[in-house]
Design a protein that fits this description.
Largest sheet: none
Structural class: mainly alpha
Number of domains: 1
Order of helices and strands: HHHHHHHHHHHH
Strand content: under 5%
Length: 238
């Protein structure tokens, strides 16, 4: 697996994918940089609205498509799988790289909040528990989306097609995240719900979503999409 990781990083080294991880944190930071809020919690909530409703789910699809882009060009899959590597490890490494890029995005989101907060001298103590729980929760909530998007990106050679699918399902988030009936079961809404502090404290293990959403939509969705994509990739004719 280590050799596969090295190979993937070499391919991405000169790629524009590293620039994409800054987009959402920068845009989210700008929304509070020129606002009139002076409270950490309120600033975090505003940044989350910009970051998690649209950009974070969209970036999940972009990262997944990017890690497969090189293999879809010029017979890259044949060259890669001709090496002494297993398809299972190749698929898992690509998924882990997507998880890693999402984690870096969340860290940059935190740095943006801290930078603006300290420059503007926000009052009160920093609510570290709320912020860290939201960032980790949002990252975990992206996992089923990453697994699904990687599945689609492996199956379709077109770079634009998986992104178009992701955009189609992400845009309704603007309406669905406000629905108590549909939001808990809509995968693209989970990053926002997980990053938004729960007022009632009903989340399992202090998670910001209900146990039903956590186990069925997030964990269940991840296992379904990951295993389906892995089986497809292992049987796919290259």
């Amino acid at each position: 697996m280590v050799k596969i990781f090295r190979s993937e990083f070499l391919k991405m080294k000169k790629s524009t994918i590293w620039l994409l991880i800054f987009i959402s944190p920068i845009l989210a930071s700008l929304t509070i940089a020129f606002g009139d809020q002076e409270d950490w919690s309120y600033a975090y909530a505003i940044m989350t609205l910009v970051h998690a409703v649209l950009f974070l789910p969209l970036l999940t699809g972009v990262f997944s498509a990017f890690v497969c882009r090189f293999e879809h060009i010029g017979g890259g899959w044949k060259q890669l799988l001709a090496l002494p590597v297993s398809r299972r490890n190749v698929y898992i490494v690509k998924l882990l790289i997507v998880f890693g890029l999402l984690a870096i995005t969340q860290i940059l989101f935190l740095l943006g909040l801290m930078l603006v907060g300290h420059v503007r001298h926000y009052s009160g103590d920093i609510p570290w528990e709320m912020i860290l729980k939201g960032l980790i929760g949002g990252w975990i909530a992206c996992m089923p989306l990453a697994a699904l998007q990687l599945y689609v990106s492996v199956a379709w050679s077109s770079f634009a097609a998986p992104l178009a699918v992701n955009v189609i399902f992400t845009l309704p988030n603007i309406l669905i995240v406000n629905s108590e009936k549909y939001a808990p079961f809509y995968p693209w809404a989970q990053p926002f719900l997980a990053m938004t502090p729960s007022s009632g404290g009903e989340g399992i293990m202090n998670f910001n979503v209900s146990s039903e959403t956590l186990f069925i939509v997030i964990i269940g969705g991840f296992l379904l999409f990951f295993l389906s994509g892995l089986v497809y990739f292992q049987r796919k004719e290259i």
